[in-house]
Specification:
Rossmann fold, 2 domains, seven-stranded mixed β-sheet, two-stranded antiparallel ribbon, 7 helices, 9 strands, globular
Amino acid sequence: MKQYLKIMHRRFCFLFFDPLEIFQRWCSIPYYLKNRKEYNRSNTNSHFDFTWKEAFPVSHDRFDKAGSAKGHYFWQDLWAAQYLYDNNIRQHTDVGSRLDGFVAHILPFCKAAYVDIRPLDVKIRNLEFRQGSVLQMPFENNSVNSLSSLHVIEHIGLGRYGDPIDPDGHIKAAKELTRVLAKDGHLLIGVPVGRERLCFDAHRIFDPQTITDIFNELKLAEFHLIDDIGAKIIRNASFDEARICHYGCGLFVFRK
């Protein structure tokens, strides 16, 4: 029932608005008015006088936690960045992972070539952007020693990011990543795992064996899991542990 309610909430938010956020905003109004009154009574600096013109009510933030340290992206991006750091990687190539997550994590200690199908108009130290597709990457065969693609291949071929519709998109992406990976190089892959299915047009969810099958030219070196709770990484997990997830995240390290 809880999972069903989450799904219905997500669909309602997509079509209309988030009722939980509206509820929190309404609940915050008494706090906002009370705090404004107290501030006006105690403020003596005219530069910081309250005016309705500049009012910016965000008192609903009091209902949030200090931050979020759970879920796929938090643990996946931290895991991948730690992997590069621990292995003293100073030159890395990533395809489509989060710029404001994993890629940003590694830039202080690693130069990164970053490939995405969408444009990027920014210059950042240690970052080289190349617009391109995971289906046709701008690299020679066997040329990339350190490679990653986190929470990407489950989207390929679904049209979500402007790519062409192709039911075999994830398979073709795996072949292209395999093509450019250098001999003895490593590839970090993160994808949703659990009961295998399509959630169009958001993503696919894979049985972990499917991922090893489409990367069958590579050797699986490590497999870890972020389960449905999303509070930690389960190191050296089994595929069976992944299969019982509704929406877990499998973290694969492949070698060529």
